[in-house]
């Protein structure tokens, strides 16, 4: 028997309170911040924070800090120091608390409100999204993406296409391009862009990156730019990108590097303040891909660039942007 990496008294003390069991079952379902947990549990913030601290110290939950915010979720069975059997057993028993049904109903409402705020941000950004991209996207990144797709004649999916800034370039390099986004308003702008550019080999699909409506191995290349930092579980999206790529195909991801610009969370609906290259590459490997080329750049702003998207912040500089390319093995 493997030696357990927990202190027994603290481990079981953490489970001796009904509210902590409620927290544990919620965090098994979803990564949540303290404010969201306050809404679901209908408890005061200091009490929620105290219970979270006990669960964290005992190894039942993990904390992820993003600037001034903290996100919590239950430790997965394979990483729980007390063993997977104990973790799963406690999670099952926690479902028996009398408040479970009411907690689940409020959790559904909290998640719906979170997603509605995100949709509002994207709808409001549709008219100036091109200005936002122009401020952080380095020309080398676009060149790097297209270079990852040679030879020509490939089937490409652009997941999170937004207003379709790269679609005319992709359309020239590929036999066919599928442009995907969750916002119909952004897709409408992408369609107009392609019509104006005379692109005839681009199709459009409204869909969630976490559940792409395509069969396995449908494309030669999957490209995603500035999508992962909006998601609670970015690795789920990476796994979907890997799933729809054929053996020998490639996944190209563009994201901000780690930064501390907290205003992006509130004004641009960012869940993550960028990523480390090693972090992205770990997710790609977990999805069965082999990371290869990467490119990291900071765009140099021209004097005429519009800073509306940065809220008029004087002396503002966007974070560096990272392009990571990975290949799905042939076998």
What string gives the helices and strands in order?
A: HHEHHEEHHHHEHEHEEHEHHEE
Quick one: overall form? Answer: elongated
Largest sheet: 7 strands, mixed
pLDDT < 50 stretches: none
Number of domains: 2
CATH class designation of the largest domain: Alpha Beta
How large, in whole angstroms, is the Cα Rg? 22 Å
How far from one another are the termini? 35 Å
State the strand order across the main sheet: 6-5-4-7-8-10-9
Q: How much beta, percentage-wise?
A: 15-25%
The assigned structural class equals alpha/beta
CATH third-level topology of the largest domain: Rossmann fold
Describe the structure.
Helix 2 (about 20-30) packs across helix 4, helix 3 packs across helix 6 and helix 11 (about 235-245) crosses helix 13. This protein is α/β, with parallel strands linked by helices. A 7-stranded mixed sheet has the order 6-5-4-7-8-10-9, sandwiched between helices. Strands 1-3-2 form a 3-stranded antiparallel sheet. It folds into 2 domains: about 10-100, Orthogonal Bundle (Arc Repressor Mutant, subunit A); about 130-325, Vaccinia Virus protein VP39 (Rossmann fold, 3-Layer(aba) Sandwich), CATH 3.40.50.150. The protein starts with 7 loop residues before the first helix and ends with a strand. It has helices spanning about 10-15, 20-30, 35-40, 45-55, 85-95, 100-125, 130-135, 140-145, 165-175, 185-195, 235-245, 265-270, 275-285; strands spanning about 30-35, 60-65, 70-75, 155-160, 175-180, 200-205, 220-225, 245-255, 290-295, 320-325.
